[in-house]
Amino acid sequence: MPGATPGRWVDAWKERMPHVDIELIPITFSGQRTAVGDLDAALVRLPIDDRDELHVIPLYDEVPVVVASADSFLMATDQLTPDDLAGQVLITPGDDVLGPLDLPTDEPSFPTIQTTEEAVATVASGVGVLVVPMSLARLHHRKDADYRPLLGGRTSTVALAWPRERTTPDVETFIGIVRGRTANSSR
């Protein structure tokens, strides 16, 4: 969805529904299914369990990127291919959202790093590389680490999900905003 971002959705919500508060609550990939049951609606990464109990609207596929030390030779190009990563140590954090990547990389000789934030700090020190969706690279950006798109890498689908039994007029309005409808649009 070109131009569709959560920030723009919140702005549109405030304009169209100023009498209804919107609260943004961060949720983890591993806890997203539980969180959706407690929220009116959530941005989630697919796959998500129990889809028959939820309404799920896929929104966009997020580009995977390689995160490495800012002074890594990998950062000398605008984009990378899986072959560019041959022999690199691939760090897969405990909160990984992409799953197995089937890249020509080596496994680390140290225990699993638990969070993406810690993994970014590790690669910033020059130890290994990390492959994550671009939004996570941006979220954990540091001066000593950078990222490049990974061509042909596994994308991560972002979707809007909400419990079927909790569809309200306000949720319907938010869905319309996410889908790009304006106050003057008809369904």
TrEMBL record:
Name used for this protein in its record: Transcriptional regulator
Pfam families: LysR_substrate
Domain LysR substrate-binding: 8-181
UniProt superkingdom: Bacteria
One Gene Ontology MF term: DNA binding
Gene Ontology cellular component list: protein-DNA complex
Gene3D superfamilies in the cross-refs: 3.40.190.290, Periplasmic binding protein-like II (3.40.190.10)
PANTHER family linked to this entry: HCA OPERON TRANSCRIPTIONAL ACTIVATOR HCAR (PTHR30346:SF0), TRANSCRIPTIONAL DUAL REGULATOR HCAR-RELATED (PTHR30346)
InterPro entries for the chain: LysR_subst-bd
Family as reported in the entry's similarity comment: Belongs to the LysR transcriptional regulatory family.
UniProt keyword annotations, A-Z: DNA-binding, Transcription, Transcription regulation
